[in-house]
Design goal:
Layout (H helix, E strand, L loop, with lengths): L6 H11 L5 H6 L16 H5 L5 H11 L2 H22 L2 H20 L1 H12 L7 H11 L4 H14 L4 H11 L5 H12 L12 H7 L39 E5 L6 H4 L6 E7 L9 H22 L3 E4 L4 H11 L3 E5 L5 H15 L3 E5 L2 H6 L7 H6 L1 H7 L6
Length: 402
């Protein structure tokens, strides 16, 4: 299994998948034949996650070739990610809960050798549980897991091994090439019974054997579960409008792993003087596979943006304040523009950086995609009310279903 970290490769993968995005996907999407076998799933998630491909162009490609009734399942999967991102954006305190629990678990693990050893065994794939150990090693080796395997893994981690859910979510966040703070955190919460209070996901040996073609049949899995509990999540807050700025003002374009197609987001902007792409951010220690993908994809984005705007482009190992200030000075601009970063490590890093830029007389402006402005405000309740609105919201994006 390989993911070539370029937009061109993502477009090729999309073109190859679209003919199979109807019934073949719907009927085969739950089966995980293994990392080296043909799969019904699209394998587009790393490209969508980093926006090497946009959700809009993927959905448009699907409905152009299939009636909606045939490709609805995959369209819903694309919108499922959008829903999770909107849900967390309207409830940022839930991300803070996760990071607090993760950090507390890290501290506890350092002081308690039993927990530390148990987490290390789970992450290294040495628990003795059939399938689970294979997925742990597969995750680190490939930076990817089939979605069904992710659910099985999380359930076994929480209910059979009885390990802290936040530590498992952090393991995924560090190693998945397509790791998304919203989808990852909220999916783990859902398995644990926190996201939908009292509703858990229990992995069973029969289900695993069925959908892995008999490759795995683990013994000793938990047969009953007790949902985890916490205080109710905060009520959603309205999606805040972004401060306006003069689009004609000369600017440095900052490219982060949140959006690696800046040439479409800032299309027509003749004011971009230089492109400054970063391949990592503070607080997100990617594993080797994920870091390699992000670094190469960032280089691809910088090259495309540089060509699109007719300006110099460069790639930097990390988001660094002094380095970014120096880049703005070199470009002779007092404005930095970047794609909006939703709740997560990139957003936190930008929020921490903004005051330092302002102190140097440099303004940081974020731009949100119309897709997010359209869908995110409707993530106020559960998935089903959101799903009912999909056709109407797609129409607002000029996507007509047939």
């Amino acid at each position: 299994m390989g993911f070539v970290p370029t937009r061109a490769a993502g477009l090729d993968r999309l073109a190859a998948f679209v003919p199979h995005a109807g019934r073949a996907y719907a009927e085969g999407r739950n089966s995980d034949p293994g990392p080296d076998q043909p799969q019904a799933v699209s394998l587009l998630s790393p490209y969508l996650r980093t926006r090497l491909l946009s959700e809009r162009e993927v959905v448009r490609a699907l409905v152009a070739q299939h009636p909606f009734r045939d490709c609805e399942k995959f369209v819903q999967e694309v919108l499922w990610r959008t829903y999770w991102k909107g849900w967390l954006e309207l409830r940022p305190a839930v991300w803070s809960r996760f990071t607090a629990e993760r950090d507390a678990t890290t501290i506890e693990g350092r002081s308690g050798s039993g927990l530390r050893k148990a987490i290390a065994a789970a992450e290294s794939g040495s628990t003795g549980i059939d399938g689970f150990d294979d997925w742990a090693r597969e995750l680190v080796e490939h930076g990817y897991l089939h979605n069904h395997a992710r659910m099985w893994f999380a359930s076994i981690w929480i209910f059979t091994l009885r390990l802290p859910w936040a530590a498992g979510a952090d393991f995924f966040l560090r190693h998945l090439i397509d790791a998304d703070p919203a989808s990852n955190t909220l999916s783990w919460r859902w398995v644990a019974g926190l996201q939908t209070a009292g509703k858990t996901y229990l992995a069973t040996a029969d289900n695993i054997a069925r959908f892995t073609g008999g490759r795995f049949a683990p013994e000793g899995l938990a047969t009953t579960v007790q949902p985890l509990s916490e205080d109710p999540p905060p009520r959603p807050v309205p999606l805040a409008p972004l401060p306006a700025h003069d689009p004609a003002a000369p600017a440095l374009l900052l490219v982060t792993p949140e959006d690696l197609s800046p040439e479409s987001l800032f299309a027509g902007a003749g004011s971009i003087r230089a492109v400054h792409a970063v391949a990592s951010v503070p607080g997100w220690p990617w594993g080797a596979r994920a870091q390699d993908f992000i670094a190469a994809a960032s280089a691809d984005a910088a090259q495309r943006a540089s060509a699109a705007f007719g300006c110099p482009g460069s790639v930097h190992a990390a988001l660094d304040g002094p380095e970014l200030i120096a880049a703005a000075r070199a470009a002779k601009v007092s404005t930095i523009v970047t794609a909006f970063a939703p709740v997560g490590p990139v957003a936190s890093a930008l929020a921490a950086l903004a005051p330092h830029l302002a102190a140097e007389g440099i303004a940081l402006h974020q731009r949100r995609r119309a897709w997010d402005d359209t869908f995110w405000p409707h993530a106020t309740k559960g998935l089903f009310p959101f799903r009912e609105r999909i056709p109407a919201l797609l129409a607002e994006q000029d996507i007509v279903l047939r």
